[in-house]
Amino acid sequence: MNDLIWINGEIIPMSEARIGVEDRGFQFADGVYEVIRIYNGRTFTLTEHLQRLARSAEALKIGMPLAVDALSEQICKLISASGVREGMIYLQLSRGVCPRNHVIPADIKPTLLFYARPLPPAPIPGEGEGAKLTAIPDERWKRCWIKSIALLPNVLAKSQAVAAGYDEAVFIEHGVVTECSASNVFAVIEGKVVTHPVGSKVLPGITRAVLFDCAAELRIPIDERPLREEEAIRSAEVFITSTTREVNWVARWNDRYIGQGRCGPVTLALHRALQMRIRKETVG
Ligand code: PLP
Q1: H/E/C letters for each residue in the chain?
Q2: What is the pLDDT of residue 1?
Q3: CB 269 within 8 A of CB 211
Q4: Above 90 in pLDDT, residue 15?
Q5: For ligand 1, is residue 132 a contact (CB within 6 Å)?
Q6: How far is CA 107 from CA 103, 110, 150, in A?
Q7: Is the Cβ atom of 274 under 6 angstroms away from ligand 1?
Q8: How large is the average pLDDT for residues 57-81?
Q9: Does position 284 have pLDDT exceeding 80, yes or no?
């Protein structure tokens, strides 16, 4: 396996890659990113990720150096060259390099890079440990639908959670559960999957969207509404989703156990359906 990176149009060894000190991504977190899963040497939901990237970039008025189709082609090229079969692509688009100034200059060339990294094999649905969540006040900005590289509140929340023996930080705003530091969160209440609508406080997760499709096929109702923390703690099942985690059942919320202390039937059915979808799109 080669440690390669695609950077501004070239594939080179990671150790040779250079970014300007005055790149606005480095100085102002002025950029956006995506994490895309590779299964069996192929990408999963690549177009959906790149469309979200284009929406994030457009919101910040960062030009996309390549159109979605051309970018997809380059990503597939990098995956072949890297030899990664099970893993992920990290892609970052920053506004580019210019003399440091808060004011965004009119003509600036964005910095685009991506590289592949291996990941352990996908989990078997329902097996393994349930995630332990700890509630942390949501102090992020109000444009969380943009997948911005400005992740300091997420980084601090997750680090605080892990230091206290938890796996993820779940954000709470005025008693309402928004999302986790790096995943979307769902509760199963009276047979329905309840989750906060996407928008100012919730990233439109790609896994979340695929899971909604799976839920429709399984006739599991989805209820997108503000979910109160006390409801979530008392719910039958809680689970979190992300590109790298897929679906992870939740065992604990602070010091309380959720449901029966094992993966519940709705979470299990949705995770199995997601894996069937992944297999259909990436095998053969
Ligand atoms: N919410 C946040 C804050 C995230 O950082 C992520 C993933 O990184 C997600 C949700 C899940 O999104 P996706 O399913 O597209 O990976």
Answers
A1: CCCEEEECCEEEEHHHCCCCCCEHHHHHCCEEEEEEEEECCEECCHHHHHHHHHHHHHHHCCCCCCCHHHHHHHHHHHHHHHCCCCEEEEEEEECCECCCCCCCCCCCCCEEEEEEEECCCCCCCCCCCCEEEEEEECCCCCCCCCCECCCHHHHHHHHHHHHCCCCEEEEEECCEEEEECCCEEEEEECCEEEECCCECCECCCHHHHHHHHHHHHCCCCEEECCEEHHHHHHCCEEEEEECCCEEEEEEEECCEECCCCCCCHHHHHHHHHHHHHHHHHHCC
A2: 60
A3: no
A4: yes
A5: no
A6: 12, 10, 22
A7: no
A8: 98
A9: no
Any ligand 1 atom below 6 A from CB of 183 = yes
Give mean pLDDT, residues 74-89. Answer: 98
Q: CA nearest 233: which of 135, 125, 139, 128?
A: 135
pLDDT above 80 (res 129)? yes
Sequence-distant (≥ 6) Cβ neighbours of residue 16 within 8 angstroms: none
Task: Write the residue with the smallest CA distance to atom 3 of ligand 1.
Answer: 182
pTM for the full predicted model: 0.97
Query: Ligand 1 mean position to 178 CA, how many Å?
Result: 12
- The two three-digit tokens of residue 160, written as one number: 């605080």
Report CA(176)–ligand 1 centroid distance (Å). 18
What phi, psi does 169 have (nearest 5°)?
-100, 130
